[in-house]
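#lab-general

N.A. 3:47 PM
ok so I finally got the sequence cleaned up, no stray characters, all 527 residues accounted for. can someone with queue access submit it? mine expired

B.Y. 3:52 PM
send it over

N.A. 3:53 PM
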Amino acid sequence: MSGFFIVMSRTETIRGRDQSIFPSHTSDGVEIKISLHWQNIHHVLPGVSPQEALEIEGHYGPRAGALDWSRREAGILVRRKTSRVCDHAAYLSGTAIRALNVYELKEIQNGHHPANTLVVPYIHTSHTQADIRALGQESWGLPPEMVTKLKNKVNFHEIVRDSQVGGFEIPDYRIANLDTLERESIRVLNEAQDLYTEHDMSNTYPLGVVIRADESDGNYGGNVIIYEKTDGIHVIINSKPITEEVDGKETEKIYRNGNWRQAIKEAKRILDSSFNRDANPQFVVTRFMDIVDSPGLSIVINKGDEESLGWNGQIQQEGTMACRGTERYQPDNPHLKRLQAIYEEKTTDDFIAFIKETAKKWGISYEEISGIVNVDIMLPGPREAELRRKMGKEYGYYVAESNARFTNYTDGVLAVTGLTNRYPSPREIQKIVWEGVTTIDGYDLRGADVSAVRDEMYELDQLAYTHGWGKHRAFMRMPDNPAGMILTGDKKLASARIEKAIDFALDTERKGRTNLVVGETIKSVLV
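B.Y. 4:20 PM
back already:
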C-alpha cells in the first residue's frame, strides 16, 4: 500500500493525533510561554574544522522552522545576533503575522529569561541538552543518548548489524580511521571484485567504494564516492567532484588506467585537511552499489504513539550527486511506484520496530519518547537485484543512515505550521505533508538582490493570503544568493510566485519600479 496508512484501535490514539507534539509545561510543572528554535549545527557536525563550522552556521543560522509556534512567544536562539538574522526574523514575523524574536545565548544566560522557555534544537545530543539546561531552560527532542548513538554512522551500522528486526539490512562494511582508510578502501574494492567474479558479474557491475565519516551529515563532514565509468575513475567529495586545471579551465579530475590507489589517496588527503585535528574521525567503508532510488522516511514519535510522514524524495542538483531539496516522494516511473507500494509500509513498520527494540536495549521507555526521526533507505537497482538473486536473497532494501534529528524536510514542515498558522499536532503535520511541501536549497535568484526578492515574495504572499488566491505559497527560508526556499501546495505554481518575485526585484533594480500593480499578471501566479 502506498501513501499514508493509519491504523487506530484506541480512542486515546485518536486524541493523541490531535494533541501538540510539544509539551505545554516544563518537567517542573511551569507553563511554557516561549519556544525558541536553535539551529545548533556545531552539534550536528562536531568534527569539521572551525572555519567550516562558522560558514555552515552562518548559512543555516536564520532558519527557524522546528519550534512550537503555538506558544505565546516564538523566536530564534543564536550564538551571535546579526542584522542578517534579525532582518530575516522580521520577514518571517510578517509572513506568520506574529512576532518572531531573536535571542542570543548570553541574553538567556544573564538571567533575562524566566524558566518558562522550551528550546527546540535542530539536533538533541547530550551536549545540546547540557547547554540548554545550563541556561535554566527546557529542551525538546529524542533522548540524547539515543540521538548521539544513532547519528554516528559507525555506531548506527553496529546497532543495525545486531538488530533482530527482519528486513532492516545494511550493506557489508568495514570501519577505518584516517591512518587505515586507504588500506580498508582497497580491501573493500577487492572483496567487491571477488563477489562480482564469483557470481559472473565482473563485466557488468561497476566497481567503486563509498566512504562516510562517522559524524558526517548531508553534504558536509566527509562523504566520498569513488566509482568507475567508461572514461575512468571519478571521485566525489561532499557531492562535489575533485577538479584540476586544464588549459586554464577548472574541470573534473578523472583517474585513468584503473588507478584506484591514486584516487583513494587523493580523497584521503582532502579529507585529512578538512577535519578538526581533535576529532579523530572513523569511517564506514562500503562498496559502491547500484541503487535505483534512496527515499527518506520520517516518523513523528509522541509519547508512545507514532505517525509516519511517509517517504520523502530528494531533488537532485542537475548534473551532480548533490541534493538541493526535498519533497514528498513522487516516483516518476511504474517500477518505482511498485516499489513504493510494496515497501513504504514495510519500511515504516521495520523502522518503528527498530526504534522500539533499540530503546528497550538501552533501558529507555518508548512511552516517554517524543521527537522526529528519519532513516535513509536504498532501493536496489537492476544489477544489485540480480546480484541478490544469484546470492539466494530476495529483493530487499538497505538502510544507509539514521538522522535522529530534524531533517531539511521535517524542519521545513514544522516551519509551515508556523507560517500558515497550523497547530503542531501529528494529524495536522501529516495533512501539511499530504497537501505538499517542497524545500529547495540553492534557489537561483538570477542575480537579483536577496532582500529585494524577499520583499517581493512577501508582498505577493500577502496579496494571495488577503484575497484567498490559492494555497500554493512560497517562503524564503535562508537569505542567501542562491537562497533557501519552502514551497507549499503545487510545486510548479509556488515556484511561479518565486520567479515572478525575482522578475519584480530585477525590474525594481533596473527600471526603478517602486510599487506592485495588482492586475491579472500578478493574479495569474497567485491563484
